[in-house]
């Protein structure tokens, strides 16, 4: 009988413990939020380390630019006043780069989680070779880094949000971009380094864009107590992500969440993925605009605005097309809810503005098909994503979470923070 | 921005640490397996506690019956010979009770994970009131406990495996049993206590039976390196479970894995769950036998044996019925694989003997419909469950895992193990 309990690891050594405690102290200060004032004494009682140990860790975090300290604060207790500690609003930050079918969006998020710089360019990436798209994205990123520097923000890492199957630094396949086996991290990092001679090389990671949009929803959206949810984002493709108890469910190979390729009708239209009758063929942007009789030649974003306008005006074909997409979404979602039992289903991308017409039929399917009355229509468990839920911001915030989890790994002068 | 990192808990106190270390030492001895010989010195270097601390913990584990020690062992190093430690093969154990549609199966698993006693009774539970079924199961459990006592095994807890939505000790709904809101743990515990006056009251927990069959597959089956898999068990219903990185994925409310109620055809036959066209209506035992033209009046088990016999004999209707069920399974499974990205899909219950006819069409659907060539036909990722994968054994083993995780909570003389 195998053991499912946590494996018996070796005891942590001194270096591991110190790095862990740097993270603990940084997070403890950060969780006080911008309003409250953290003190060394407060952190000490919060995390259970001695006052002396906390002071030493705090000094290192200040020296490396992760914490700042300001004026005196009075705790109300006897003794010397402490100085107030805060997470730095300048210095280390995260860079997020979303490469999507018809736009590239880049943003910088500071250690507190605030979005500070954003640059978005609309352009059709479908025809271009991957290397060219990544080089263009690097160009936008370089300009964003210039803007960030003017605010004294220096991203210590970058994360790429990509609309496809992402694993081990590469895009295995992004059917809507036409990418196959593209070593995106390496190409992007190389292009960015070439644009910034002499600058420190930024470590780059990559992730599926729906996964990052879901994390942005979790961290910045209005989900409140919801910790487990299914996230769907309608674009040219239909992306999906699963968040369980606050953690992204990536699957065994990193490809989980491909709800756009769940089959609706086994004999339905061919899909770019090679199968037939995938959800994307019924509820993706192209299918939706076609069903509504809207020529998308002017670009997807304007097509969706036109669809929304017509639906508002009561155009029967537009309303019918959105309702039918909602029914198909609801049908596939009911299966996903039966499998996964989330607290909520969050719809983003093009579905956000279409919710008034999309949501009722989807909710009806869920109510009828989720087992044993576990889904009640109108319960609010089917909801639109918040504006904040975007993949570029999620990508930048992922870098910030990396920093919070192990500040020593990201310190400019890491020898000062090391063992 | 919310923090997705592990919450900052308080420091562990002495009692928590001692209980944790008791578990650590017990598991370290157990992981040596029956062949190897664990010594205090070996455990000490393995878990990183001092020799004195390990000795003190070992004494308590021996006194409470979790460990035994035998003859002298020579480590090959200088110094005194140690005594060999082993996990006790008598004393504390786990009791598993599976209540299914047409049978009840009870088993006892010892601390090493070996199944030691088993009693199964075939009986149709569909007509009977829940209290009667649970009382009958308690009767079988009481007789199994008597048999266990003859082997000096004394289960310290029981787990119920139930074919329905299980949460908070109750069956919310088990459509194929006809149960609604049945407080199964309480009723079973009461019935068992009434049958064993004067005996210690056994703590009882409960879980969905497919979840426990999946855990049995994980712990006792031939999955080897597979840590993430989808498990389907064909019975009168179609149960499912998701194991991700060695852990059961229970969902936000404990109802995850209901793959039997994923929709195949939105306008298909009515299902007991209230929806239409669920997978169960195409690949459940009743549907399968009906499609094959087999009268299931003689009981499900004999019906499935007859189906297997006819398929072996090349009966076209039987082979066609199983192949069609395989196609429907494959179609739903492809969606589930796109969502979850597991290493493998494991089919148990009635699907096991039918794999020669069921597996090829299911594998073809998976190959054609899982995104981007991530599933190759014949790769062995679609496989039959092992014989060992049964819910009663999984239930008993779950109790054993509970014991290993916190032996102090289960010690007969817990004051000896407590802080």
From TrEMBL, chains A, B:
Pfam families membership: ROK
Family: Belongs to the ROK (NagC/XylR) family.
Protein name stated in the entry: ROK family protein
Species this chain originates from: Streptomyces nitrosporeus
């Amino acid at each position: 009988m195998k053991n499912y309990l946590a494996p018996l690891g070796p005891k942590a050594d001194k270096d591991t413990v110190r790095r862990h405690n740097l993270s603990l102290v940084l997070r403890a200060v950060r969780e006080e939020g911008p309003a409250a004032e953290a003190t060394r004494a407060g952190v000490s009682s919060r995390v259970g380390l001695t006052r002396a140990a906390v002071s030493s860790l705090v000094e290192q975090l200040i020296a490396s630019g992760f914490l700042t300290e300001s004026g005196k604060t009075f705790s109300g207790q006897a003794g010397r006043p402490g100085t107030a500690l805060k997470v730095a609003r300048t210095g280390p930050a995260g860079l997020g780069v979303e490469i999507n079918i018809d736009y590239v969006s880049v943003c910088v998020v500071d250690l507190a989680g605030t979005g500070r710089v954003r640059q978005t360019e609309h352009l059709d990436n479908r025809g271009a070779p991957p290397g060219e798209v990544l080089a263009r994205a690097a160009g936008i990123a370089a300009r964003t880094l210039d803007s960030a520097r003017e605010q004294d923000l220096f991203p210590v890492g970058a994360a790429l949000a990509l609309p496809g199957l992402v694993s081990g630094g590469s895009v295995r396949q992004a059917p809507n971009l036409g990418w196959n086996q593209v070593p995106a991290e390496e190409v992007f990092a190389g292009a960015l380094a070439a644009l910034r001679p002499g600058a420190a090389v930024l470590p780059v990671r990559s992730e599926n864009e729906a996964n990052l949009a879901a994390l942005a929803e979790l961290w910045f959206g209005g989900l409140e107590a919801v910790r487990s949810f299914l996230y769907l984002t309608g674009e040219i493709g239909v992306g999906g992500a699963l968040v369980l108890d606050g953690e992204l469910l990536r699957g065994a190979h990193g490809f989980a969440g491909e709800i756009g390729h769940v089959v609706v009708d086994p004999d339905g239209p061919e899909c770019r993925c090679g199968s037939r009758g995938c959800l994307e063929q019924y509820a993706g942007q192209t299918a939706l605009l076609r069903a509504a009789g809207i020529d998308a030649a002017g670009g997807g974003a304007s097509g969706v605005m036109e669809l929304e306008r017509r639906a508002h005006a009561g155009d029967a074909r537009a309303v019918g097309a959105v309702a039918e997409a909602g029914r198909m979404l609801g049908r596939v979602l009911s299966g996903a809810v039966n499998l996964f039992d989330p607290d909520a289903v969050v719809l983003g991308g093009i579905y956000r503005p279409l919710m008034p017409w999309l949501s009722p039929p989807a909710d009806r399917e869920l109510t009828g098909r989720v087992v044993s009355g576990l889904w009640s229509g109108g319960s609010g468990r089917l909801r639109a994503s918040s504006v904040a839920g975007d993949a570029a911001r999620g990508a930048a915030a992922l870098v910030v979470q990396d920093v919070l989890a192990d500040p020593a790994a990201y310190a400019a002068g890491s020898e000062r923070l090391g063992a």
